[in-house]
Amino acid sequence: MPDSEGHPSAGEMTLSAVLAALADPLRRRVVRELASAPDGTARTCASFALPVSKATVTHHFRTLREAGLIRQVDRGNSRMAALRRTDIETCFPGLLALVTAETPAP
């Protein structure tokens, strides 16, 4: 069962939810940027400068969180997002390497 913040445990992460979350290029961009940063890096959702409305940004981060790809923590009036690198590598070995190797569309 997901915790009170909507984060599933590693055992609850499913391939279908992860692939559905990664189907969107903006969500893959978020994961790619977090995966390229040092382990443990957390960023505000706004720092990704996604070219969509605030409501759509919220939707994208909720989708990533509910799939188990990121962990979000409230910090004052913003939310910090960090990649769940260890859980992803344990459940889906090599997935992050594939996402980071992808050449983003122009």
Please give a quick description of this structure.
The chain is of the alpha+beta class and 106 residues long.
Structural summary, described in words:
This protein has 106 residues and is an alpha+beta fold. The chain has one domain: Arc Repressor Mutant, subunit A, CATH 1.10.10.10. Helices cover 45% and strands 14% of the residues. It is built from five helices and three strands. It has helices at 15-22, 25-36, 54-67, 85-91, 95-101; strands at 42-44, 70-75, 78-83. The protein has a three-stranded antiparallel beta sheet. A hairpin with a 2-residue loop joins strand 2 (70-75) and strand 3. Helix 1 (15-22) packs antiparallel against helix 3 (54-67). The longest helix has 14 residues, at 54-67. The chain is globular, with a radius of gyration of 13 Å. The model has no long low-confidence stretch (mean pLDDT 92). Keywords: DNA-binding, Transcription, Transcription regulation. InterPro entries: ArsR-like_HTH, HTH_ArsR_DNA-bd_dom, HTH_MetalResp_TranReg, WH-like_DNA-bd_sf, WH_DNA-bd_sf.
CATH architecture: Orthogonal Bundle
Termini Cα gap: 38 Å
The proportion of residues forming helix, as a percent range, comes to 40-55%
Main sheet overview:
3 strands, antiparallel
What is the CATH superfamily classification?
Winged helix-like DNA-binding domain superfamily/Winged helix DNA-binding domain
Global morphology = globular
Q: Mean pLDDT score, rounded? A: 92
Strand order of the largest sheet: 1-3-2
Q: How many beta-strand segments?
A: 3
Radius of gyration: 13 Å
Query: How large a portion of the residues is in β-strands, by DSSP E?
Result: 5-15%
CATH C-level category: Mainly Alpha
